[in-house]
Amino acid sequence: MWAWDEIGPEGLRFYGKMSASISHEVKNVLAIINENAGLLNDLVMMAERGVAVEPQRLVGIAGTIDKQVRRADLIAKNLNRFAHSADHLQGEVDLAEWVELALALVGRFASNRGIRLEFSPPPATPPVQSAPFFLLNLIWLGLDMAMELAGPDKTVLLQIEVAAGRLGLVYDRLNPLSDNDWDFVTDGHVRSLALLLGANPWQDVKSGRFGFDLPCER
Amino acid sequence: MAEKILLVDDEKDFVEALAERMRARGMDVSTATSAPDALAQTDKESFDAIVLDLAMPEMDGLEALKRFKEKNPQLQVILLTGRATVEKGVQAMKLGALDLLEKPADIETLSRKIKDASARKMVLVNKAAEEKIHDIMINKGW
Residues A122, A162: contact at Cβ < 8 Å? Predict the structure, then answer.
């Protein structure tokens, strides 16, 4: 039986961590738009004093603002999907889409740690019945651990393995450390989430990989 | 004399726009998009104030602040952050930051803080020079 007092607080921590990071990203975008709006004001004041303002200069500023608006739009879309992942305890999930969403949410954590996250989704993944929010939580726990265990090239490779009756998410290219340094399988939060999701966590210390398998109908 | 400023933020679009606005306000501005680059610039040049982003890849603002202060305790550092928590603010002040401003920052407020930083640095430099002269007078026994 999975323990709510384990996954509940962990889920809230995860939600809080992602929300704080997203708000930080939004603030960065606003800061850039703010400075460029200020720059436009400065140029208007200069023009009023008779200083010539090159049209190309204005085109450049408009381009920067446009780029940041598109960035903010993407952040808002990801935030919206993330927030709605908690709408239902059970639902049909495309694992590849969920991994991509998780990567978009944790991008800043990775860049702050100097880690590159790589993911090439398979051409098609069968849908799985899962708890969408808690699946994202499990993907994050794996990413957090994988970033700590990343090898010398500071890259974590994510792969989806499709097999009959199961779908696996693999965190690859990690440091092949001793058994004591790895705890994906025995970590309390991972175990509770795995029980809730019917997932099977595994790790292969020697080859520097860990992951989890999800049951699927095909 | 123009204040000599180093702006440090991993968001290139932010640094470039803010630098241009500060230059338009008569400041002498250099930029860096990473803490290691900023540290390298302070090895070569002296700045009246450093405006430093708190959250950056490679080395975060607090670690960079610590290194700046170790290298030169007189350096005046103003931190900019997208998420100012009380905990981080206290940590920054303990490490010797002059101030911590939240993004998006008002340019006039930031300019005022930079002028304060510049004046404060001048006081510290003058005080250090006076102490040095005093030491020489005492030790040389003229």
Answer: yes
Domain that holds residue B75: 4-140
Tokens 């040049």 -> residue: B45
DSSP strand pairing (A128-130 vs A91-93): antiparallel
What's this model's pTM, rounded to 2 decimal places? 0.86
User: DSSP letter at A174?
Assistant: B
Q: How many domains does chain B have?
A: 1
Q: What ipTM was reported for this prediction?
A: 0.83
Residue that has been written with the tokens 């969920």 in this structure: A98
Strands A200-204 and A209-215: antiparallel
Hey, what amino acid is at A68? Q
Contact indicator for A178, A205 with CB cutoff of 8 Å = yes
| Residue B133 amino acid letter | I
**Residues of A engaging B, defined by a Cβ cutoff of 8 Å:** 20, 23-28, 30-36, 38-39, 42, 46, 61, 64, 67-68, 108, 111-114
Express each pLDDT in A14-73 by its tens digit: 999 999 999 999 999 999 999 999 999 999 999 999 999 999 999 999 999 999 999 999
Give the residue from chain A lying closest to B14, CA to CA. Answer: A32
Q: What is the CATH number of the domain that holds B53?
A: 3.40.50.2300
Q: Is residue B3 within 8 Å of residue B115, measured between CB atoms?
A: yes
Q: Is A208 left (phi over 0), alpha (psi -120 to 50) or beta?
A: left
Cα A120 from Cα B25, distance rounded (Å): 48
Query: Could A114 and B105 be called an inter-chain contact, meaning their C-beta atoms sit closer than 8 Å?
Result: no
Whose structure tokens read 């996954």? Answer: A7
